[in-house]
Amino acid sequence: MEKGKGVMGSCRRWAVDFSDNSTAPSSRDIPDPPGFTRASVDQDDSAVSRQKKDAESNWKAQKAWEVAQSPFKNLLMMGFMMWMAGSTVHLFSIGITFSALWQPISALQGVGKVFEPYKDNKVDLLGPKLLFIALNLGGLALGVWKLNTLGLLPTHASDWVSSLPPAQEVEYSGGGVPL
Amino acid sequence: MPITHAFLLFFIFSSLQPTLSLYEDQVGLTDWHQQYIGKVKQAVFHTHKTGRKRVVVSTEDNVIATLDLRRGEIFWRHVLGHNDVVDGIVIALGKYVITLSSEGSILRAWNLPDGQMVWESSLHGPKHSKSLLVMTNVVIEKDNVVIIFSNGRLHAVSCIDGEVLWNKDFEVESLKVQKVIQPPGSNFVYVVGFAASSHFEMYQINAKNGELLKHESAAFSGGFSGEVSLVSSETLVALDSTGLILLRIRFHKGNVSIQQTPISNLVEDSLGPAVIIPSSIMELFAIKINAVTIFIRVTGTGKLEVVEKANHETAVGDALSISEGQQAFGLVQHAGRDIHLTVKLAHDWGGDLLKESIKMDQQRGLVHKVFINNYVRTDGSYGFRALIVMEDHSLLLLQQGAIVWSREDGLASIIDVTTSELPVERAGVSVAKVELNLFEWLKGHMLKLKGTLMLASPEDIAAIQYMRLKSSEKSKMTRDHNGFRKLLIALTRAGKLFALHTGDGRIVWSLLLQSLHKSEACQHPIGLNLCPWQVPHHHALDENPSVLVVGRCGPSSDAPGVISFVDSYTGKELSSSSLVHSVAQVIPLPYTDSTEQRLHLLIDADKHAHLYPKTPEAIGIFQREFSNIYWYSVEDDNGIIKGYALKSKCDGTVADKFCFGSRELWSIVLPSESEKIIATVTRKLNEAVHTQAKLIAADQDVMYKYISRNLLFVATVAPKASGEIGSVTPEESWLVVYLIDTVTGFVLHRVTHHGSQGPVEAVFSENWVVYHYFNLRAHRYEMSVIEIYDQSWADNKDVWKLVVGKHNLTSPISSYSRSEVVTKSQSYFFTHSLKAIAVTSTAKGITSKQLLIGTIGDQVLALDKRFLDPRRSVNPTQAEREEGIIPLTDSLPIIPQSYITHNLRVEGLRGIITVPAKLESTTLVFAHGLDLFFTHFAPSRTYDSLTEDFSCALLLITIVVLVAAIFVTWVLSQRKELQDKWR
């Protein structure tokens, strides 16, 4: 490509520009062929493309809703896994809990990216996005709840007092049985 | 190899059930065991046979042992009971050791080669008396006979089976028998003694049947005193009651004659009364006047003549027959740094058989006893070896002018132990004697790797094991990262300080304390206490740490005290002083001065408190905390516990600003007719407590431990029940236990165990106390636990308040302000009786605790504190199980694997000391009695370090291989990608 461009740029002899599709007849050197009305073609074309666009945006909206709902399945699976893992702290349950926390967070970070393909002027992405966020937040809540059932959240008084050093004593007394 | 964040390992390990036992090849890696016998009282050589030459000894710690004469190792050893004092030993028939013990009432025969007991017989008599054991050459019906005088009765016992052949009582009431003599080649024995302190009594008794042949007595108006010396088989030398007149008592052929010679006739400048050194040397005896030893010869005609006056410290040994009619005896004299060993013939003072001079370590003190033995040299002449017992209780064998071996038997009687850190390793200072070079290091790791990969041959395994045991790493003289290497400083009964290295148990230095040395001013010095005095760690690192030794001149509590300060690195006495006041208590205060010297209060018998160190700075610190310092004393003989505050001045006339008077604040008087104090215990001053909150996992609740240093546990029993177990019925016996706040005298808790009896052994740690006693109703030992919780903080439960720090949990607390406590307690049966009990202590107090129990079998058993949890119930809930609560059982389990002494015994176990290492998981355990035992102990496994057999080389190689593999695959993949692109 680069090479071709270089050649064309340096030693062009002649060229035909097919790319002109401007609609204004006045700006054209060559008149339209007889029987060709540019306006009708244009109109017809636009109707088709509108139909197409409608279908596409419908499809996009539908897809967006689907994507928005996808964490729900995840949620169910996570819930099942958590139930399987039990409430004692060991390698498995910790792994599951952290993945349950990490998945929604990473999903929430990439909300824009997830819905990027379905971006359209006509498609209202707010609903799916909200649903997506809500479901992921639900997943996050599930993870936090699991974390709590594992006893890893400092929600009890015991979690705050166990790091405190014992209180100093004011008085000191020593002694015992005489030697 | 500590890896503080080895989380993965932690998870793997925490999912395993902890086991405390160790593998066979781990024995001796961190533990060491030393065997001692104590101060030798009597020694009998056994060198006739061609077999292994040995010496049989009895010691003041009631030990009978045979030692190898070549190396001083113990062949066999028997530790008799606490009240089974050995009175005499003889060797009979060349194969039995016969011992008389327990005040002359038990006679035992032991097989000489292996120490098996052959027979035992008990001898009874009408009254308490001196016990004498005499081996005779009399034969009754083919039985060799040993004659014993004990408990006022003369017994003849067969050597073969211990049968009492005959016995004989003496009619004179007040007879005090001094000697039993069998003249050589005769069939009778003389029993001589004093009656009514002014009569000399002589009985001639037929040794075959106990028949009285003759009884003579002679009166001497001056009276007799002290010991007697035998100068021939029919002549004694004694002193009159004033100690100024020598009496030569001859009882030849039944005629008793007493000849008097005033000592002043013999010695011109005699000063004061004399003391006879008991001996039985032919025609010779020794007396001691003050510090001068005088040897006096008794000629055949009865004349006494002085042969030598020795001004130096002298020890005389007993006579040894070397040939027909010839006796030799050993004599050891001090001369400066040397000792002179002389062996002389009894009848010829001038002719020395042996004269040797041996350089002696000054830290061994004076020679106390000497035992000699002869052997025939290759040229037919006599050679002599001497076994000497020194002032520091050590035992040495001298032969051919050199010390063949020595035993530090002073370590058998440790009074007190403390620890000291080793010096910090500095750049350029190589302290390890043998540093491994790189090649050896590599070789070692290759061997280890082979071991891990199971490729090692038996020789390699032996080499690995040797390498592990002899690792120079553990016996270096510097501080290590894990805090395993320390100095154990022990004060022994002989007044000697020993510093032992925790790595291999060797003696780094020893010091015979001059302040605890017998002197004019201090006749019977005894060591009392050993405290760390200066522990530099922050701003005084240039100074060496030092220890304080507190002693006292004499056994009474008002005898003046002595203190000395000893450098822990060098073992030099920094200073020592005789105090003008007595020492009743030593109280280390929780304050240090700018050079990290700890302030100490020494309380004297008049209840004055003396502050040490005597510096203005110490006074300043002390004055600041003056109103918060209290002390208490437990007067266990009259059942009173008193608490005192300090007054700013002494009551005495002498102005001493370091002396403070005491003001009685409270007293607890226990009714003497129903309670007698038998045990008190407090928390260790230096115990680290991580947190005061105790989590109750079941309902996520918190209980606050009542953590106070000022708590005293007191156990009392009914006065009747203070004797032996089983001496009272359960109805008249009870055990009362108190927990007392020693600042206010407030009794926090009191519980009565009906039908229980002492002895009580207890240990106090954090907020709990565990004590051991005997339950008379159940006929079993019991262990009880009391845990104390503080109720006044129980409302600190609002999480948000805790998050923002609005709580009073860390504010200083006063004993006067709080009182609301709850206790939880529980009792369990326990199979063993105890000798000692201790608890593990770790650097930060995070690791769970285990009790260390010194069992009656002289072993140390680890028992998890969880077994002594008062919250144990028959059916714990799931949450409680997860918390680690064990279902309730009525008795505590004894798991054979949790003996931390594994198959060793610490004979005569007296104390267990735990010292935290720097590594949080590990505590250092030192058990002492006759033997010493040291080990590392991890109550919840070593979760913060890799195990010793972890192969570092394997890990390194794995990493290297992995990195190489990554690199190779990366190169390969690059190449492949390029090829794909060209396609």
UniProtKB/TrEMBL annotation, chain A:
The chain crosses the membrane at residues 80-105, 125-145. Keywords: Endoplasmic reticulum, Membrane, Transmembrane, Transmembrane helix. Residues 18-55 are annotated as: Disordered. The keyword Lipoprotein does not apply. It is found in: Endoplasmic reticulum membrane. Pfam families: EMC4. It is a multi-pass membrane protein. It comes from the Eukaryota. Belongs to the EMC4 family. This is ER membrane protein complex subunit 4. The lineage of its organism: Eukaryota, Viridiplantae, Streptophyta, Embryophyta, Tracheophyta.
UniProtKB/TrEMBL annotation, chain B:
The chain crosses the membrane at residues 953-973. Its main location: endoplasmic reticulum. Keywords: Endoplasmic reticulum, Glycoprotein, Membrane, Signal, Transmembrane, Transmembrane helix. Residues 1-21 form the signal peptide. Pfam families: Beta-prop_EMC1_N, EMC1_C. Residues 22-409 form the EMC1 first beta-propeller domain. It is found in: Endoplasmic reticulum membrane. Residues 765-982 form the ER membrane protein complex subunit 1 C-terminal domain. InterPro entries: Beta-prop_EMC1_1st, EMC1, EMC1_C, PQQ_b-propeller_rpt, Quinoprotein_ADH-like_sf, WD40/YVTN_repeat-like_dom_sf. It is a single-pass type I membrane protein. Belongs to the EMC1 family. Component of the ER membrane protein complex (EMC). PANTHER family: ER MEMBRANE PROTEIN COMPLEX SUBUNIT 1. This is ER membrane protein complex subunit 1. It comes from Hibiscus sabdariffa.
